[in-house]
Design brief:
The chain is an alpha+beta fold. Helix content is 23%, strand content 30%. The strands form three sheets. Strands 1, 2, 3, 14, 15, 16, 17, 18 and 19 form a nine-stranded mixed sheet that branches. Strands 6, 7, 8, 9, 10, 11, 12 and 13 form an eight-stranded antiparallel sheet that branches.
C-alpha cells in the first residue's frame, strides 16, 4: 500500500553499506579498511602533548568543554535545507538539529558477545531484591490473572479512536488485534477452575530454572524473571498488567519535574544493580499518555504508572536502539529490496509504579571481552555531513510520483553494535545517527491524496560509521 511507511523496528529488541556514487565512493567496511583502522596506532588523547591541534583550536580544554566535540570540530547545531532525487521520488531535507556528542577524551572500539549466564544473574538479582531467603513459590489464580488483562484490553477496545491511524484499514487492523487479545484472555478465564489455582508453598527450585523462567517471593515481595536464550532478561514484581510498559518510547521526552527526575534515577539505580552494563536515565512518560500516543486509547491506568527507557553506556558513550527509516514499503519492494528484521541493539525499558520499578526488560545485554583499539581515529564532522548529503538520497525508496520530506531533529554520536564478519562476536563502533521523522505524500482513497506526518518520529534517517564513513544499515548487522 502506497501510504504505508517502512517503519519496521525491533521489539522486546551491522550493517550493509548503501551503494555510493562512482565518482566518490564511501569506504566499504568489507574491503578491510575498517580492520586496518582498528589495527592502527591509537590516536593520542586530546589533551596529550602528541595531539596535533588544528589551526585556531584552543590551547587548553577546560572541564566545561567537550573534548570530543572539539577534536571532531562538531558544531552545537546544524540548520540547513536541501533536496534531490531519491529512488522513486523527490526527497526534501529540513535539518534543524542539535548535535549531541558525549564528553569523552577517548573513543575505543570494543569487542564482545551478546548474552549472559541466566543462573548466576537470577541468583544475584534474587538476593539483591529479596535477601538471602528463605523463599516461597507465590500462589497463583488463573482467573485473577485473566481478569486483569481482560479489563485492560476491554478499556483499550472501547476507547480506540480512528484519528491516529488515518486509513480505515489500519484502524480496523488494530481493533482486530486488540479484540484477539481480549478473546484469548476471556477464553482463559472461562476454562479456568479451582485446579488452576495453587497456594503459596516453600520454594524448592533451583536458580538453574532461570534459563527459562522463575517466580519467587520472600513472603512480602515477589518477583519473576525469564530469559530468551540468555539474550533477553525480563523482570516483574507485584500484580501489574503486563501491557503497561516495555519497549522503546516512540515519542520520547525527558523528565518534567523533580519527582520524575527522581523516578528516573530510581530506575537507573535499580538497573545498575543488576550486574549488566552501566545505564543512564533517558526518557520517562505517563503510561496512559504513551498508550494514547501509540494507540489513541485511554486505558484508565492510575497516575502512578510511568514508562521509562535507559541507555546502556560504555566508556561514557551511549548505545541507542534505533532502526532505520527507508521510505515506503512498496517503494522498497519496487526497488527489489527485501525486508529483514533488524539486528537488536541493547535496550533497557520498563515501568515504574509510584517511583518503584515494577517491570524491566533488558534486550540483548552485551559482554565486553576485549578492547580492539583504545582510541580509534575518527572522521571530522564536516566529512560526515558531506557523506550524509550524498548518501541519504540513495538510501530512501519512494513510490513513483510521491514525494517525501525528512525533518532531521537531532544528530547524535553514539556506539552501535555491529556483526564481526564470519564470527558470532560483535563490535561496538562509533557512529553518527541523523534522527528525525518523515512528512509524506500518500493516497488516502483512489484519487484523493494528503500530506501526513509519520506516527513514529524518533528513528534514524541514516547511520554513518564515524571511523570510515560507510553507511550502516541497522537492519542487517554488518
Amino acid at each position: 500500500m502506497k501510504r504505508i511507511l517502512a517503519l519496521l523496528f525491533s521489539m522486546i529488541f551491522l550493517c550493509a553499506c548503501v551503494p555510493t556514487p562512482e565518482e566518490e565512493a564511501v569506504i566499504h567496511k568489507n574491503e578491510g579498511t575498517l580492520e586496518q583502522q582498528l589495527a592502527a596506532t591509537p590516536v593520542p588523547d586530546y589533551q596529550s602533548e602528541d595531539f596535533v591541534k588544528a589551526e585556531g583550536e584552543p590551547e587548553a580544554v577546560t572541564a566545561e568543554q567537550n573534548t570530543l566535540r572539539l577534536s571532531l570540530n562538531a558544531p552545537d547545531k546544524v540548520q540547513e535545507n536541501f533536496d534531490g532525487q531519491a529512488v522513486g521520488g523527490h526527497l526534501y531535507l529540513e535539518i534543524d538539529a542539535e548535535v549531541e556528542v558525549p564528553n569523552v577524551e577517548k573513543v575505543p572500539v570494543l569487542r564482545g558477545q551478546v548474552g549472559y549466564e541466566p543462573e548466576k544473574a537470577a541468583e544475584r538479582i534474587t538476593k539483591l531484591l529479596l535477601g538471602d531467603g528463605p523463599y516461597i513459590r507465590p500462589g497463583h489464580s488463573g482467573r485473577a490473572y485473566s481478569q486483569i488483562h481482560m479489563e485492560f484490553y476491554q478499556k483499550w477496545l472501547e476507547a480506540l479512536d480512528q484519528k491516529p491511524y488515518g486509513p480505515t484499514a489500519d484502524y480496523d487492523a488494530i481493533r482486530e488485534e486488540v479484540q484477539q487479545h481480549l478473546d484469548s484472555y476471556a477464553e482463559s478465564y472461562r476454562i479456568a477452575d479451582d485446579s488452576d489455582d495453587r497456594p503459596s508453598q516453600p520454594w524448592e527450585g533451583s536458580f538453574a530454572d532461570a534459563k527459562e523462567a522463575i517466580s519467587i517471593s520472600n513472603g512480602e515481595k515477589g518477583i519473576s524473571m525469564h530469559n530468551a536464550g540468555s539474550s533477553h532478561f525480563v523482570y516483574s514484581a507485584g500484580n501489574h498488567p503486563s501491557s503497561v510498559g516495555g519497549g522503546w518510547i516512540d515519542n520520547p521526552r525527558g523528565s518534567r519535574n523533580e519527582e520524575e527526575r527522581q523516578w528516573m534515577q530510581n530506575a537507573a539505580d535499580f538497573a545498575n544493580g543488576l550486574g549488566f552494563a552501566r545505564v543512564i536515565p533517558q526518557y520517562i512518560n505517563d503510561a496512559d499518555e504513551m498508550t494514547r500516543m501509540r494507540y489513541g486509547v485511554e486505558t484508565g491506568f492510575e497516575s502512578g504508572y510511568k514508562v521509562f527507557t535507559l541507555l546502556p553506556e560504555y566508556e561514557g558513550i551511549p548505545v541507542y536502539p534505533y532502526v532505520t527509516m527507508y521510505g515506503s514499503d512498496t517503494g522498497r519492494e519496487a526497488a527489489g529490496i527485501p525486508f529483514t528484521r533488524n539486528l537488536e541493539q541493547e535496550e533497557v525499558s520498563g515501568t515504574l509504579y509510584n517511583g518503584e520499578v515494577v517491570q524491566l526488560q533488558w534486550n540483548s545485554p552485551f559482554t565486553v571481552t576485549r578492547i580492539e583499539n583504545e582510541n580509534v581515529p575518527l572522521l571530522p564532522f564536516e566529512r560526515i555531513m558531506e557523506i550524509f548529503k550524498r548518501q541519504v538520497f540513495m538510501s530512501v525508496y519512494l513510490d513513483e510520483g510521491y514525494d517525501m520530506t525528512y525533518r532531521v531533529t537531532g544528530i547524535q554520536f553514539s556506539y552501535m553494535r555491529v556483526q564481526v564478519q564470519n564470527s558470532d562476536e560483535y563490535r561496538l563502533v562509533p557512529v553518527w545517527d541523523f534522527i528525525g521523522y518523515a512528512v509524506y505524500d500518500w493516497e488516502t482513497t483512489p484519487g484523493q491524496r494528503a500530506i501526513s506526518q509519520a506516527f513514529f518520529n524518533h528513528m534514524s534517517i541514516l547511520t554513518i560509521n564515524a571511523i570510515d564513513g560507510s553507511v550502516i544499515d541497522r537492519y542487517l548487522g554488518y
